[in-house]
Design goal:
Layout lengths: L2 E7 L3 E7 L5 E8 L11 E2 L1 H18 L7 E8 L5 E3 L9 E2 L7 H7 L2 H7 L8 H11 L1 H4 L4 E3 L1 H10 L3 E3 H4 L5 E2 L4 E2 L1 H5 L10 E3 L4 E4 L2 H7 L6 E3 L2 E2 H8 L7 E6 L3 E7 L11 E4 L6 E7 L3 H11 L3 H7 L11 E3 L17 E3 L7 H22 L8 E5 L6 H11 L3 E4 L6 H14 L3 H4 L5 E5 L6 H23 L2
Parallel strand pairs: 1-5, 5-14, 5-15, 9-12, 16-22, 22-23
Antiparallel strand pairs: 1-2, 2-3, 4-7, 6-8, 10-11, 13-14, 16-17, 17-19, 18-19, 20-21, 23-24
Helix pairs in contact: 1-6, 2-4, 10-15, 11-13, 13-14
Length: 486
């Protein structure tokens, strides 16, 4: 049967994970990457560093786990989304890749974001998306724009090097503002609006399909047999969903990383761009997903820990594990603005209701509750949210039992914590590689992870949390006005 390699190209590192035919993780390795910020609001990366990192991470795997890599017959790719990798003649890189968190193209995004764009793509055109970046290049670096032969997303540039094929897949392509997301095909209209054509776009496949085979010289260098299949793969969140089995309608995951993500799978295409909810294609054929984002989730706890000079884990541990009724103190986690549902980069956070006897525990609980209320806003923005039977919890914040209990009661949805193991984007990518190499049905491959704990909504707390959430929501207009008057 062979082994399957998942490659997850992150912003700060490239991670590799090998699984066997039973999906048992056999080996993993990581190589760091660096980001350049030459100007305020800019965020760039040298695509050549991805190729070096890929060679290095496989070499590391081979050195630490002899024999594991040599049995690989399928590879899946995952990567950070929205990046503009601009290629010219002979696929030469024309400039550093403009990354997802680069905001230089905010004016171009505002120009592209209209009813036509939202109707085609199903989304607001955000500055981080790919299309406004190319419009910025056209206006500010015309000597580069006139040489553009093609534009690839980061993981797809890695694929070009691995296979020689210019290919993308639906989940990543949906984050460009060039895809007709409902039709799962490039939009001539959106491409024309940025001075491009479909000939400059990669061929599209589904995430489980074969996108090409590993080039013979790379296969020989890595000690692999000829004909290793490379799957379409997925954008990082779609690949993560594959890793935790969120590949069927009614399933979802809750990520409590520095930012927070609420990801739900849907069999239908039902966009609501006015809520700043992302509606993208899934990496699984015939599926879409919706994703709400709160920009400061665990990041809010990290901020509080810096202010109080106490480690994040110590703060949350001191808050205990039992729910209690929310008090007067509220926290709005808009430390870096907010994405869903406000799409407001200017608004900032606040504590409201501080008292003379407010304690560290009160502040910690208020921060955790505020993030939960923000995630609730994401859930309410999703038209299919009521169908979600449970949410799989991932990310650093999922280590807090109290926070998961809060989330279950605020979201009125059971929250499950996976057992120890690696079920992230690299694992999801490896699963996609398995599907492409074997033709296996994704439903039989993308199974749920083993669960170590499951938290049900506490009925006695639902009314109190709902009332506190209403008070939380009522504060946003005042904060928005305060930011406008700065």
């Amino acid at each position: 049967m062979g082994h399957y390699l998942g490659l997850d190209l992150g912003t700060s590192s490239l991670k590799a994970l090998v699984i066997d035919e039973n999906q048992t993780p056999l080996a993993t390795a990581t190589v760091p990457l660096t980001v350049e910020r030459p100007h305020f609001g800019w965020s760039e990366q040298d695509p050549a560093s991805w190729l070096t990192a890929c060679d290095d991470v496989v070499a590391k795997l081979r050195a630490e786990h002899p024999g594991v890599v040599e049995a690989v017959v399928g590879i899946g790719l995952s990567g950070h989304m929205h990046g503009a990798t601009i290629l010219g003649a002979d696929d030469a890189v024309l400039r550093p890749c403009i990354l997802w968190n680069d905001t230089r193209s905010h004016e171009e995004a505002a120009e592209l974001d209209d009813d036509e764009a939202r109707a085609i793509t199903g989304n607001i055109v955000f500055p981080g998306f790919t299309a406004p970046k190319l419009l910025w290049v056209a206006r500010n670096e015309p000597q580069i724009f006139e040489k553009v032969r093609r534009v690839l997303l980061p993981k797809d540039y890695l694929r070009l090097w691995l296979t020689g094929e210019s290919v993308s897949e639906m989940s990543d392509a949906a984050g460009t503002s060039w895809l007709d997301t409902g039709a799962r095909d490039w939009s001539d209209t959106m491409l024309e609006r940025t001075g491009l054509s479909v000939e400059q776009m990669p061929r599209l496949v589904e995430g489980t399909e074969v996108s090409g085979t590993l080039r013979s010289e790379i296969a020989a260098r890595w000690g692999l047999a000829a004909g290793v299949v490379v799957a379409g793969g997925g954008g990082d969140n779609a690949a993560s969903a594959c890793g935790v089995g969120v590949t069927r309608p009614g399933t979802g995951f809750l990520s409590l990383g520095t930012s927070g993500v609420l990801f739900t799978a849907s069999a239908g295409y039902d966009p609501v761009p006015e809520t700043a909810l992302h509606t993208f294609c899934h990496a699984i054929p015939g599926l879409w997903h919706q994703m709400g984002v709160t920009l400061s989730a665990a990041g809010s706890i990290e901020w509080l820990s810096q202010v109080l000079k106490e480690k994040p884990g110590e703060l949350t541990a001191a808050a205990g594990t039992q729910l209690r009724r929310p008090g007067r103190l509220l926290f709005l986690p808009y430390l870096s603005g907010e994405r869903t549902p406000h799409n407001d980069s200017a608004v900032r956070g606040a504590f409201v209701g501080l008292e003379a006897d407010t304690t560290r525990e009160d502040m910690t609980r208020a921060v955790m509750e505020g993030v939960a209320f923000s995630i609730r806003d994401c859930l309410d923005a999703a038209p299919n949210a009521s169908w979600v039977r449970q949410l799989i919890a991932v990310g650093a914040g999922s280590r807090s039992e109290l926070w998961l209990k809060m989330m279950a009661s605020v979201l009125e949805t059971p929250v499950a914590l996976p057992a120890a193991g690696d079920f992230g984007a690299a694992f999801g990518a490896a699963r996609l590689g398995l599907c492409a190499a074997t033709g296996a049905d994704p439903a039989s491959v993308m199974t749920d992870p083993p669960v170590s704990a499951r938290y049900e909504p506490e009925t006695a707390m639902l009314e109190a949390y709902a009332e506190a959430h209403q008070r939380y929501q009522a504060l946003y207009p005042a904060l928005k006005e305060a930011a406008r008057r700065k």
